[in-house]
Amino acid sequence: MYLIVRLDGTFSEEEAKAIQDQMSIQAQSADLFKTKPVNQESFNRVESELKSKMPAILERDGIYGMRGMFTDPNDASVKDFTEEKYQVGAAVGWGGAQMSDNIYESSGNFSTDSCYQLTFEDPGNAGFWSITVYDEKGFMFNDLVNYSSNTAKENQDGTYTVSFGCGANAPNNLEIDNPTGVFNFTVRHYRPSERVYKEGYRLVPLVKTVSGK
């Protein structure tokens, strides 16, 4: 069993550790849990095969590529369920929440040879939005890989610009150079606004190539 608590960049390392130190799990049984060991080679192969399906899903379904990955049989999201997306969602996201709680966007891969920017209006989520970069294999590769509505600096007109590989002077810049030669990013909407949840407002389609390197 794993307990994961996600904190945004407004917490210091000391504050995060203090929260971690207060966590505990109370077992309801003293019986030793035993299970058959996982075949790591088989696990890695299946995980990689499932993750490799994501670009084709995004190309086919566009901004709704992740719809149907995280559904509940007891609410309206069940109509979006597909076995394909359920399996891929488990591989790329280790499960997920319902659309009324969290909505995810995935960009597909971009070359690290250019500079990109994403300028958008604040979605107005009740929780927050965040944008995180990954390499081709789905791993983070830098110390600063994320901006959110709690950490990003606004433009003068109230919009936000997140830059990818545009240099330290660019607004809310995230470095993209990594050994795989490509990057992708995921947008997360926590407690999404009606504009996001019902009207389909999405940020990924707004990204633009600014210049080559």
Explained architecture:
Pfam families: DUF1214. This is DUF1214 domain-containing protein. The protein is α+β, with helices and mostly antiparallel strands and 213 residues long. The chain is built from five helices and nine strands, in the order H-H-H-H-E-E-E-E-E-E-E-E-H-E. The strands form two sheets. Strands 1, 2, 4, 5 and 8 form a five-stranded antiparallel sheet that branches. Strands 7-6-3-9 form a four-stranded mixed sheet, with no helix packed on it. The radius of gyration is 19 Å and the shape is globular. The model has no long low-confidence stretch (mean pLDDT 89).
Distance between the termini: 45 Å
Beta content: 15-25%
Average pLDDT for all residues: 89
Q: Which series of helices and strands comes N to C?
A: HHHHEEEEEEEEHE
Mass-distribution shape: globular
Structural class: alpha+beta
Main sheet properties: 5 strands, antiparallel
Distinct helical segment count: 5
Radius of gyration: 19 Å
Stretches where pLDDT is under 50 for at least 5 consecutive residues are none
Strand tally is: 9
Helical residues, percent: 10-25%
- Seen as an oligomer or otherwise, the chain set is single chain
